[in-house]
Every structure is written in structure tokens, then in C-alpha cells.
UniProtKB/TrEMBL annotation:
Residues 195-236 form the Zinc finger CGNR domain. This is Zinc finger CGNR domain-containing protein. It comes from the Bacteria. InterPro entries: ABATE (IPR010852), ABATE_dom_sf (IPR023286), Znf_CGNR (IPR021005). Pfam families: ABATE, zf-CGNR.
Length: 243
């Protein structure tokens, strides 16, 4: 039996437990534009988490949704690809948590090892296609066929209930939904807005919807402040050496 209601915000703490404000209700933020905002009670969240089989592992790195599109967010679950690659989808339940936290589904059947292996393969294919597009190169045939094949499968189907929209899915359906987002993104009007984060160590690719297209960082907290602080320290050191 799947949990009744869950939609977890991007404010999920490191433990993987949804961030709950107040006793009765928590406001669930939209993790990416287009995702629904929802109000759920802590009890409902707990029920849903239990139903999802999502376990809470201390020390887990929080999933982030800064890219503006679920396909890009999935691609960025392998962080710092060029310098010190860091895998955030390191267990099947971490993938399950990602699907729910992304706002793509409200409840998900438990993820198996095979679901994780396939999701990682599709993620790499999406990254391959996105980076090819950014570089103005042609698509890798294998990556293209994997993403298309995944998108061809049945996606997570939204259902209307008295409370609003409700999406229950299997991991395969959730992955198909992500692949469809990749297809729509790479064939849509936002391709020119795709950018890699200006932090050279960060390899996140996001959609810059800012006015004037001046967004440099995937996030100020994650990269902007870090790079600015490092530049400040470098300038200070230089001034001291010169002095
Ligand atoms: Zn970044």
C-alpha cells in the first residue's frame, strides 16, 4: 500500500525526512517551476514516507533541484563530474526519494537495484545529450536511443482527486517521465537558456530564466557565495603579497 499524500519540498534536510513547519501543516514549496505546491500534515508525510520505503540515512547528502527542469536535475545528481565526481544516487531508496522530492510523483513503489542501475544509465545518457547540445555537437546515437526508448514507455499518470492532482508511479514510470522532460527540453525553446554553472568545479547545467540572462550559478548558496569568497581571499592574499 502506498502512502496517501506526499510531496516533499527542496527543503528536505540531510536525513531525508521532509521539513515540517508547525504542528498541523507544512507548506511544501515547489522544487521546480511547474511542480505543484501542496499542503500536507506531518502525519501524512510520515505515512507516505513509510509507504514509500524511503529510509533515512544519517549523512546522506540532500538532493537539490536548482536546474529548472527534472531532466537536468537528474543529470546533476552526479556532482562535480570533472574534478571529484560525487554520486548522490548511491542506493535504490535514494533514487526513490529523488523522484518524490522532485515533485514528479506523490507516491512511488519501492526502487530496486535494477531501477537504480537503469536510472543512472538514463541519467548519463541525458547528460551526454545535454552537453552535446551545449557544445553544438551531434547526439551520441546510443544515448539518444536510450533516452527515446525510456520516453516511449508509459509515464507516471496524473490523477484528479477531491484534493487535487495525485501521481502514483512505479520507478519505471517515473523514469519515463524524466526522459520525456529531456525530450521536451532538448527539442524546445529553452535550449538557448541552458548554461553550465560558472563555478569551474560544479558541473550542474541549469536553465537561466533570469531577466537579461545574467544568472551565473546553479545557486548562490551552493556555488555563487563559495566562488566569490574564494576570489575575495585570492585578491586579499595578492594584495598582502604585493604589500
Ligand atoms: Zn554550481
Amino acid at each position: 500500500m502506498l502512502g496517501r499524500v506526499v510531496s516533499i519540498s527542496s527543503d528536505v534536510p540531510a536525513t531525508g525526512v521532509p521539513f515540517v513547519e508547525g504542528v498541523d501543516q507544512t507548506i511544501i514549496k515547489r522544487p521546480w517551476p511547474g511542480a505543484r505546491a501542496r499542503r500536507v500534515s506531518p502525519a501524512q508525510v510520515v505515512t507516505a514516507i513509510a509507504g514509500l520505503g524511503v529510509t533515512c540515512q544519517a549523512g546522506d547528502v540532500k538532493h537539490v533541484f536548482l536546474c529548472g527542469n527534472p531532466a537536468l536535475d537528474l543529470a546533476c545528481t552526479l556532482r562535480a563530474r570533472r574534478t571529484a565526481p560525487f554520486e548522490t544516487l548511491d542506493a535504490p531508496d535514494r533514487l526513490g526519494a529523488w523522484y518524490v522530492e522532485s515533485g514528479l510523483v506523490d507516491a512511488l513503489a519501492p526502487c530496486e537495484e535494477s531501477d537504480l542501475a537503469l536510472a543512472v544509465e538514463v541519467r548519463e545518457a541525458i547528460y551526454e545529450l545535454v552537453t552535446a547540445r551545449l557544445a553544438g555537437d551531434g547526439y551520441d546515437a546510443e544515448a539518444l536511443s536510450l533516452v527515446n526508448e525510456t520516453a516511449r514507455r508509459p509515464p507516471a499518470a496524473p490523477q484528479l482527486t477531491a484534493e487535487g492532482r495525485w501521481v502514483e508511479a512505479t520507478p519505471a514510470q517515473a523514469l519515463s517521465t524524466v526522459a520525456r522532460h529531456a525530450v521536451e527540453l532538448l527539442s524546445g525553446p529553452e535550449v538557448p537558456l541552458m548554461k553550465e554553472c560558472a563555478n569551474p568545479e560544479c558541473t550542474k547545467i541549469f536553465i537561466d530564466r533570469s531577466r537579461g540572462g545574467r544568472r551565473e550559478w546553479c545557486g548562490m548558496e551552493s556555488c555563487g557565495n563559495k566562488v566569490k569568497a574564494a576570489a575575495y581571499r585570492a585578491r586579499k592574499k595578492e594584495a598582502q603579497t604585493a604589500g
